[in-house]
Task: structure prediction
Amino acid sequence: MQIGILTISDRSAAGEYEDRSGPLIRQILDGRAPHLTVTHQTIIPDELDTIAQTLREWCDAGLNLILTTGGTGFAPRDVTPEATKQVIERETPGISEALRAESLKITRHAMLSRAISGIRGQTLIINLPGSPKAVRENLDVLLPVLPHALELLSNTPGSESQHRIV
Result:
């Protein structure tokens, strides 16, 4: 399974701020889901067209999963959900709702998340928050269901027992 990690941050893209969420996602995946291979990872600014173009290119490259981090809040430049909506063919509201619901148990600020998730072709795209703490919390919720979701998308159901995520 090929994975892409897309950090969306003006300051990180400009080299003014260290991206901590993208590397954390990779670290967590490497430790808890070694069968998922990160083949694409980059940092781009909060530009709607750039985000949408990158997502399309990565989907067309055959990635099974794209995890974005950043750009999901209320700030005027937070346009990750809008870019994702331009790219996906089918929304996956259960994923987004579950991530928000679990996050609400930790902080009321979770209700300010506009993150979405959806499918383009056989690629699952999931918007994660930009905060490393929130990324870790969201992945704790997401990782147990990810093998089955990706198997369904790749049309290989039933092999999930081979790829349990701890």
The mean pLDDT is 94. The helical segments are 10-13, 21-32, 48-60, 80-87, 93-104, 132-142, 146-153. The longest strand covers residues 37-44.
